[in-house]
From TrEMBL:
Entry keyword annotation includes Transmembrane helix: yes
Species for this entry: Nonomuraea rhodomycinica
Protein name (Swiss-Prot/TrEMBL): Uncharacterized protein
SUPFAM superfamilies: YVTN repeat-like/Quinoprotein amine dehydrogenase (SSF50969)
Residue stretches spanning the membrane: 102-122, 128-146
Domain of life: Bacteria
């Protein structure tokens, strides 16, 4: 409301300072009942300019009061006060009956409206100030119009029309306009928590993870502004990343499959961090929000893969790291190799960074799994309900089997090779796990 009040005041001041045109000057002289002659033209111009200066000063002061009180009533008073003040010194010209009638009706309506508001809302300092100003102006109008002008063309007089309209404007605005109230923010729909410690939280196992849920309220430390680990705030993890032209997105925080480690974006230094019960280990340097990678665990939680423009795979046991240039996604990692995809190819790379197999990438939705011994690669073609197998050493296409599930089941996702040996796939509709013979395409339910 403060901004609106100041803006209204500035607009009113600008209107009062508008340039004087010949048409406006002629209209002023006609309304004031002045006869313009070559002898008095300069005097009329000076008189009109003086009245404009007075109105400009009055409006500027009223704009200041309005900005401080948030009460637009004072803008109306500042604009209309000059005719009333001049009428106290000099009686106005003879006025038309219609304007006197309008003033009487407006004043009567203002009295009724003010009485209704006082009965329903009670007196307030602002309403009492309005009433006092309206009474003073009404008395001035009555006093001025009761007097008679001895010289009908006396310089400095305003028309009765201007006096009545000014009085009507002040009376009505005094009844109808009230001070604005500053905009109150809605209270949050959640209870504010106790002060959260900003020291790093620790854990032995990660039993539960809950993500932040209010990206637009970064100024509060409400529960929805934190990652919750085991039900408690995890203050060292960044809740959101901000990217140019986009809405805030959750920063990565990924739990390892064995529930013993987390990888997350540090809230303060913006590095990707690996944390387990033994402590904290940085995986990257400082990152811009647009460069934050996706996180994947592989190899029974041993390996952490970070993928963006390149892929970085870290062995959490040894601390060794390998980077695959141009790789946008890491599909599988084990002790005998890494499977990653670029925009156009599928790569199998060993842990020394040497490429062992390169295949054209067919569909972005395909997923790839490396046999534990590193000798075979399975490509799960989800769109075709088909699985292809390749020899890693030679690149030979070993088999291609179409999957025929019982009933109305279809392929959901591949799961890699089981400890028992056969390849595993999961159904889409019923979440059932099946063994798959990559040579014959035979499927059979896995026993739990």
């Amino acid at each position: 409301m403060t901004i609106l009040s100041w803006a209204a005041g500035m607009i009113t001041v600008l209107v009062a300072a508008m340039p004087v045109t010949r048409e406006r000057l002629n209209r002023f002289a006609a309304l004031a009942g002045l006869s313009v002659t070559p002898d008095n033209a300069r005097q009329i111009i000076d008189h009109f300019a003086g009245l404009r200066r007075q109105r400009l000063i009055s409006v500027a002061l009223a704009a200041l009061v309005t900005g401080l009180t948030h009460d637009p009533f004072y803008l109306v008073v500042g604009w209309s006060a000059i005719p009333v003040l001049h009428a106290i010194r000099l009686p106005p010209t003879e006025g038309e009956r219609i304007y006197r009638t309008a003033w009487l009706l407006g004043s009567g309506g203002a009295v009724v409206a003010s009485g209704f508001l006082l009965l329903n809302q009670g007196p307030t300092p602002a309403r009492l100030a309005h009433a006092a100003i309206v009474v003073i102006v009404a008395a001035a109008v009555l006093l001025a119009t009761a007097r008679k002008s001895e010289r009908p063309d006396e310089m400095g007089r305003w028309s009765a029309r201007s006096l009545y309209l000014s009085g009507t404007a002040i009376a009505l605005s005094g009844a109808l306009l009230t001070p604005g109230q500053p905009i109150q923010r809605d209270p949050p729909e959640y209870a504010m928590p106790a002060q959260v410690s900003h020291s790093a939280a620790s854990f032995t196992t990660v039993d539960s993870v809950k993500g932040p849920e209010c990206p637009w309220f970064d100024e509060t430390d409400a529960p929805c502004r934190w990652w919750l680990v085991n039900g408690n705030p995890f203050p060292q993890a960044a809740p959101y990343t901000i990217r140019t032209g986009g809405a805030p997105q959750r920063a990565p925080l990924v739990r390892s499959p064995d529930h013993k480690a987390l990888v997350y974006l540090d809230r303060h230094d913006r590095r990707m961090i690996y944390q387990d019960a033994d402590g904290i280990r940085p995986l990257t340097g400082v990152l811009a929000d647009a460069a934050v990678p996706t996180v994947t665990f592989a190899g029974q939680s041993r390996y952490v893969a970070l993928a963006k423009d390149n892929a970085q795979i870290t062995d959490t046991r040894t601390g060794s790291t390998i980077t695959i240039l141009g790789a946008h996604q890491v599909h599988d990692v084990n002790q005998n190799g890494i499977v990653a995809t670029t925009a156009s190819h599928v790569l199998v790379v060993d842990h020394q960074g040497r490429t062992r197999l390169t295949l054209p990438r067919k569909d972005p939705g395909d997923t790839y799994y490396l046999h534990p011994d590193g000798t075979r690669l399975a490509a799960v073609r989800d769109a075709e309900d088909r699985v292809d197998a390749y020899a890693v050493r030679t690149g030979k296409h070993l088999s291609s089997v179409a999957l025929t599930f019982p009933g109305d089941e279809s392929l959901g996702t591949g799961l890699g090779w089981s400890k028992e040996g056969p390849f595993l796939v999961r159904g889409y509709l019923y979440d059932r796990v099946y063994h798959l013979d990559l040579t014959t395409g035979k499927l059979w339910r896995r026993k739990r």
